[in-house]
Amino acid sequence: MCGIAGIIYRNGGGAHRVGRDMTSMLQSMKHRGPDSTGYALYRAPSHDLVLRIKLAESVDQHDPDALPRRRRQVEARVRAAGAQILNVEEINPYTITANLAFEGDIKWLADSVESVPHVEVLSLGHALEIIKDLGDAQTVGSSYHLDDYLGSHAIGHVRMATESDVDISNAHPYWAYPFSDVAVVHNGQLTNYHQWRRRLERAGHRFASDCDSEIIAVYLAERMAQGDSLEVAMRRSLEDLDGVFTYMCVTEDALGVAKDELAAKPLVLYESDDIVALASEEIAIRAIIDHEIDTYDPYESEVMVWTR
Question: Could you tell me the CA-to-CA distances from 226 to 92, 100, 174 in Å, in that order?
Fold first, then answer.
C-alpha cells in the first residue's frame, strides 16, 4: 500500500525542524507501510558535496572487520577520484556521511565509491541527504537523530514490501543517480518499467534496486539535464510513463507532485503562506498543523511544483 509525504517551508531561511516534522507525518501513516521508512531532506545548499553511503544492509556478524575495511576502501576510492575528504561521520556501523571538496564528474565519483563490493551511494549533492532504513518512522528518525535536522523541504516514504525484498536498497526515496540533489518517492506501479529501465541503462545509468520508483527519479533528472524545468519534466513523464501512480520529486530548491490520468492513488494537499504539506492521507498533514485546516485532492494528470 505504502504512503508518501512532502513538505516545503516558504519562510525561515531553511532553518525549520524538517526532520522532526517529516517523522511525525510518516509515523501517522505507519499502517500504510511498516517495513521501512525513508527521507530525502534538504538543507541550504553548501559548497561542499555531501555523500551518504551504505556499507551493507546491516552489521555483518560473521566478519566484524568487514565494515571498517569497506570504509577504508571507500575513503581510498574517494581520494583516488580527486575528492578531498573534509569530514566523515559514522551514523551507525553500516552508514556513513562524508563532506567532500570536489569539482569533478559526479558519476565518476559515485562509480568509484560503488566499485567497492556491497557499497551503495544513497545520495550525493550539495543540499540533499537521503536517510532510509528498516522499521517505522519513529525507529528510523530516532536512530538517525532526525529531530535535530534543520532544513527547508523534504519528502518521505513508508513502505509495505510487495514485489521486492525488505531491505535498505529497496526502501524509498531514490536518488536520481548520477544527478546531484534530485530524489523521488512514489506510490503506485509503472507498467512500462522494464522498457524504461533498458532504455536508461543503455544511456549509462545504473540502478541500485528493482523498484520502479527509481526509474522515475532517473527519468526526471535526465530530462532536466537536457534542459527541461522540473515542471516540464514531470508533465512529460505523464506522457511517457504508464501505470497508476502518484509521485513526488524534490530538487535543491523545489518540490513537485504528479498524478497519472486515472488519479487512483490518493493524495491530499494543504497550502498556506508559510507551508505546503502533502501526503497520502490527511492524518499526516494534521500531525504537523496545530489548527483547523482545509485540504484538497489534486486532479488527474495534474502536476504542481513549489519553490522555497
Answer: 37, 26, 20
